[in-house]
Amino acid sequence: MSHSSQTRVQLRTVCLFIALGLLVGCQPNDEDPGLWLKGTEVTRPVTDWTFTQSVDEILIETQPWYGLPHSTTIWCVQLDGALYIGSYGNERKHWEKSIANDPRARLSIQGDLYPVQIRPVIEGELSQQILERYNQKYDMEEVFGKDVPEWWFYQVEQPEASAKKKPS
Question: How far apart are CA 67 and CA 4, in angstroms?
């Protein structure tokens, strides 16, 4: 093998390792999305999510149609021990579109990874209670000013809990 061929092979190898490093270590940062989430997988069921009340931001990883995970930073609140996440604005976010097709997701909360299912909150009264919690936790007027945008909320369920709720 010639010296120039060896150099090309080495360059390709280095580029491959750099690309793999970016893919494997690409977690979201603030408003910048990422791919796979890192952390310790939690396999025990969570029956009370109140520990999230002191957590300002969590990460969500969804599975879009194109096969690579999509992760982003989101806010959360707990209400009566249940966990809810939300999104605002005129257009649905990328993660919302993904869960509309596949409700399975993973949440990263303080370095722990929770496999979950995400379901839209349809009930108006519950949505209002969640919005009040969001206002308490995040002071929406301070964040958005007087024009607080419309919000959509989603309930976080663990796969085992979702399976138990199905009618027989």
Answer: 36
For domain 3-165, give its CATH number from 2.30.110.10, 3.40.50.2300, 3.40.50.1820, 1.10.1040.10: 2.30.110.10
Phi and psi based region of residue 167 (left: phi greater than 0; alpha: psi -120 to 50; beta: remaining): beta
Distance CA(121)–CA(153), nearest Å, equals: 5
Phi, psi of 33 (to 5 degrees): -75, 165
Domain boundaries, given as residue ranges, for the chain: 3-165
The burial class, CB within 10 Å (0-12 / 13-18 / 19+), for 154 is buried
Whether the predicted model's global pTM rises above the 0.70 cut: yes
Question: Both ends of the chain: CA-CA distance in Å?
Answer: 67
- In one-letter notation, the amino acid at residue 137 is K
What's the confidence (pLDDT) of residue 166? 45
Tens digits of per-residue pLDDT, 130-166?
999 999 999 878 888 888 888 899 999 998 654 444 4
**pLDDT tens-digit map of 12-46:** 765 554 555 555 457 777 677 788 999 999 989 99
